[in-house]
Design a protein that fits this description.
Blueprint: E1 9-13, H1 24-36, E2 41-47, E3 60-65, H2 77-88, E4 92-96, H3 101-111, E5 114-118, H4 123-129, H5 135-148, E6 151-154, H6 157-166, E7 174-176, H7 189-202, E8 211-215, H8 221-241, E9 246-250, E10 269-273, H9 278-284, E11 287-290, H10 300-307, E12 311-315, H11 324-327, E13 331-334, H12 339-347, H13 358-364, H14 366-375
Parallel strand pairs: 1-2, 1-4, 2-3, 4-5, 5-6, 6-7, 8-9, 8-11, 9-10, 11-12, 12-13
């Protein structure tokens, strides 16, 4: 606890299991807490079944919420949290996503804590994008939650600008707290070459060909749409080009309609399924494909791919939150659903090995990110 500001005691509310962290949303919470807890006295309340190791950070983990969907409207949790606030002399409550905003508002009114909302995207718009009829109800609720908060953390400048314009927030009430990387430098050419040989041998690929990676939770509709784009629009153009390449697709939750994906192996596409160590695959890849335009927030795998010195080929919306000068030549953009430009960006970067600048690591360092967050608590 050395170096902590003893006058600041933070209680975080994470409404779902985030440890062990597998997907981008879970990693965003887990890594933020790991580095944030090194700077402030910190406690997290989350759902039962969440398990923490010493490597996850120096904070108390209290598994007080059930896994029942009705937990989001259970008023009795107020009394449990009020007791924790009193015992630990909590000064700030940090809520992940807006869902427990009503609970945070109640705690603010009846205990005097300051309320901080940690937004991962504009949730109402995310659900609008995947066709949920009730998205507008969530949007208005989300607006009320942010307006009730003392501080709102947004994951991209685009989300922050939207909230200021459409939620009526004050600029001084908002700040951008992005997703980060634990790497402090890109892997060397030798490290990437060695990883590529291992991954190529594992999946029976030609290590001499450029390796293109698409990694996503494939049960999520925007990611399925990205997969459809690769299979039906992008890959035919790449095949027609005659250039050498291999596309490796990683991710769990593949819907049944894609059962024939293994048949694409003779079309330069290999499906690896869920992989235990995705960082190994980022290190191996030459190019990361990001044909995702929906879902909001920052695309966490774009940050991870850039940190591994991949060239990222992306739709405009998929690159939100990544400053162009920081990514430099490692980020190439095309308009949504523009398969021709997307394929041209791939073709022109197949054999180019750019180096991600150190400025990227300064910007996306978890230590620096959480220091910025900590400054807003004072």
């Amino acid at each position: 606890m050395t170096g902590h500001d003893k006058q600041i005691q933070v209680l975080a509310i994470a409404p779902y299991r985030f440890l062990p962290a597998i997907n981008g949303g879970q990693k965003n919470i887990a890594l933020f807490y790991k580095y944030f807890s090194a700077q402030v006295s910190f406690t997290c309340a989350t759902v039962k079944g969440t398990t923490k190791t010493n490597d996850d950070g120096n904070y108390d983990l209290l598994t007080i919420f059930s896994n029942n969907p009705l937990r989001y409207i259970n008023l009795f949790y107020f009394f449990s949290l009020k007791k924790i606030i009193r015992q630990k002399k909590i000064t700030h409550v940090l809520i992940e996503h807006p869902y427990y905003g009503w609970l945070g508002w109640l705690l603010k009114k009846l205990t005097g804590i300051k309320l901080v909302i940690h937004s991962h995207n504009i949730e109402g718009l995310r659900f609008k994008g995947i066709g949920k009829w009730w998205w507008r109800i969530l949007w208005y609720y989300e607006k009320m939650v942010h307006r009730a908060a003392d501080m709102s953390f947004f994951i991209t400048p685009e989300d922050q600008s939207y909230a200021i314009a459409h939620f009526g927030l004050q600029e001084e009430q908002c700040t951008v707290i992005t997703y980060g990387t634990e790497r402090d430098a890109a892997p060397s050419k030798e490290e990437k070459s060695a990883a590529k040989k291992i991954i190529s041998a594992r999946h029976q690929l030609d290590a001499g060909k450029p390796l293109l990676l698409y990694s996503a939770a494939l049960k999520y509709p925007p990611n399925q749409k990205g997969l459809d784009f690769i299979l039906s629009a992008l890959n035919p153009l790449l095949l027609k080009s005659g250039l050498p390449y291999s596309i490796l697709i990683c991710g769990s939750g593949l819907p049944g309609e894609y059962d024939n994906l293994k048949a694409y192996s003779n079309l330069n596409i290999t499906y690896a399924g869920f992989v235990d160590d995705i960082d190994e695959y980022f290190t191996a890849a030459d190019i990361f494909l990001n044909p995702v335009s929906e879902g909001g927030g920052i695309k966490t795998k774009v940050v991870e791919a850039l940190a591994a010195n991949c060239t990222v080929i992306s739709f405009e919306e998929g690159a939100w939150g990544i400053p162009g000068d920081i990514a430099d030549k490692n980020l190439r953009i095309s308009k949504r659903d523009d398969a021709f430009t997307f394929s041209q960006n791939i073709s022109s970067n197949l054999f180019i090995n750019n180096s991600i600048p150190m400025l990227f690591f300064n910007h996306f360092s978890w230590k620096n990110i959480t220091q910025q967050a900590m400054a807003r608590f004072r």
